[in-house]
Specification:
By secondary structure, the protein is an alpha/beta fold. Helix content is 47%, strand content 8%. The protein has helices at 16-24, 48-52, 77-84, 97-111, 120-125, 127-136, 147-150, 153-164, 174-179, 181-191, 214-222, 224-231, 236-244, 255-276; strands at 6-8, 29-33, 63-67, 89-94, 169-173.
Amino acid sequence: MRKLNFFIIGHTRSGGTSLEINLMQHPEIFIKSHRSGYFSFQTHYKSENEYLELFKNAKNEKWVGERCSGYIFCSSTASRLKQFASDAKILLILRNPIDVMHSLHSKMYLVEMIESISNFEEALQAEPKRLDENNITLGKHPPEILYRTVVKYAKQISRYHKEFGKENIKVIIFDEITKHPKEVYKEIFEFLEIDSSFIPDFQAVNQNRKPRNRLLQSLFKKNQKLSSIIGKIPGIQTFYQSINLPVSKRDAINPELQRNLQKELLPEIEELSTLLNKDLTYWCKN
């Protein structure tokens, strides 16, 4: 079994799926992804050996690793990954935190059926209460709907700097990879010390979707047995998405809420800018 030496740890709703698909085209990279992974908040794998079976098809690639967006905001993952693969390279992608929170709320409410509050602003206001309730009953509210906690970028990255060292971590900015994909992927390949002249067939996936019938979407998401059975039918996911979960433009954020969030998050972004030696405060400007 090949040893893992590479992890894409996030961030959620920031182009991670596209990043994985594009990197997988490189002949020297092998990646598998899983929503919960083995080192996050929870896992469905019963043992490390069962987890490693995920990578059994890796051959002679220089980099064999996993992508899991939950790894960045689970506080125990960095130290666990260090114990598991001490010499691993870490890759992550960051997007404007306001866009991440807004996109995540939309997905959790409309697609995953985890969020019960339809209004983004009201869901943000519910976070303090949810945090308090989680302190009383561990895991009452899933981490994905603790939106402000999800985007504590500086704190999250600092954990990985401490465990792996800055030289082994590559931080990609969503805006830069969107505008200049060839240049950014060249930097990634140079970071991994593989053929940097390789140009992927760039693909953008995981677009925003909105169910036509929320009751039907809820039925599929909450009935795991039904989902498992139907999911085995070839082409069913594509068919279902075309019928009930089409690509849809996300509703715009209220301008006043946008300004308030920019003001609120500015100190956090300033801290992140210092940590990465890159000015990202434009995220907090109109």
